[in-house]
Write a structure and sequence with these properties.
It is a single chain. The chain is of the alpha+beta class and 307 residues long. Helix content is 31%, strand content 30%. The chain has a 12-stranded mixed β-sheet, sandwiched between helices.
């Protein structure tokens, strides 16, 4: 990696977590004017059983030892796509660090992608980060999708939503893991960019959830949908809300979301967020607006073929 004088590159380790969080929050303040919860999200990714910190991450360190830039590149299915991100501290921008990290990302993607696979390399950039978008465009990336973080305050009582007739909703149980994995794979199959989710990662994830924050909807013994939520640095986050096609259009997703919101509020959580494809064909954005959510932040997804 070609770096300006005074900078060095190395892989991240769990001991660097706080420094990378501080870096990302400094970028948030510069790019959007506020900080978002990031520590739990980052740590969860780093601790995945299929994640290789030594190979999948790079830190750039200034002469004083401070972490000033970070990049990662990882693919659940590298024969299909590799997801990446790169951030540079505002005080160190304009020195070529971003270009160096994107070059490393592209080299890492080439290592991950099987020969002749047609793998897509994707990079997510804040919509307000014009410098980052210009950099990617100059290297042949094209914008392919917009994603939103949507948010709802939980400072008012959460309204009730009726559960559709014939369906029951209960807390998650350990023996739900396998049928829930299969149900979610089916529910997300018609989403843009859908890929198989690693089973071992899902099973590890479900060992860590709070059962009361996972609503499982059933008709008889068959899973119709689910909502998986958690607390993140004092706020709420919805990882998944999904309803299988035969049960859509009956208000089940709304009921699942509001059930999770009410449980989060009961725990003293002051707001809840989630991530959504702004062009989602299932009407997810309209659903989230109906349950009181608004766009909190916008992201642009750029893509290019791996060479």
């Amino acid at each position: 990696m070609n770096l300006p004088e005074g900078y060095a590159a190395r892989a991240a380790s769990l001991a660097d977590l706080d420094d990378v969080v501080a870096l990302i929050k400094a970028c948030d303040l510069a790019d959007v004017g506020f900080e978002d919860p990031v520590r739990d999200h980052l740590e969860q990714g780093w601790r995945r059983p299929d994640y290789d910190l030594d190979a999948d991450t790079r830190l750039l360190v200034a002469a004083d030892g401070k972490v000033v830039a970070y990049a990662e590149a990882h693919g659940d299915n590298p024969e299909l796509s590799v997801e990446s991100v790169a951030v540079v501290h505002p005080a160190h921008r304009g020195r070529g660090l971003g270009s160096a990290l994107v070059g490393w990302i592209e080299a890492r993607a080439a290592e991950l992608a099987p020969a002749g696979s047609g793998t897509k390399l994707r990079n997510m950039v804040a919509a307000t980060d014009e410098r980052g978008q210009t950099l990617l465009a100059g290297r042949g990336y094209v914008p392919v999708r917009t994603f939103w973080h949507m948010e709802r305050a939980l400072d008012e009582p959460v309204e009730d939503a009726p559960i559709p007739v014939g369906i029951t909703v209960r807390d998650y149980r350990a023996d739900d893991a396998e049928p829930l994995f299969l149900a979610l794979e089916e529910a997300f199959a018609d989403h843009w960019g859908a890929e198989p989710f690693p089973r071992e990662v899902f099973m590890q994830w479900m060992e860590q959830v709070d059962p009361e924050l996972v609503g499982v909807a059933l008709e008889d013994a068959e899973i119709a949908g689910a909502c998986i939520a958690r607390t993140v640095e004092g706020s709420g986050w919805v990882d998944v809300v999904a309803v299988r096609r035969p049960w859509r259009g009956r208000g089940l997703a709304k009921a699942l979301l509001l059930r999770s919101f009410a449980e989060l509020q009961r725990r003293g959580v002051w707001s809840v967020m989630l991530n959504v494809d702004a062009e989602n064909v299932t009407g997810a954005t309209r659903l989230y607006e109906r349950v009181g959510m608004h766009v909190h932040r916008e992201w642009r997804l750029f893509e290019k073929p791996v060479r």
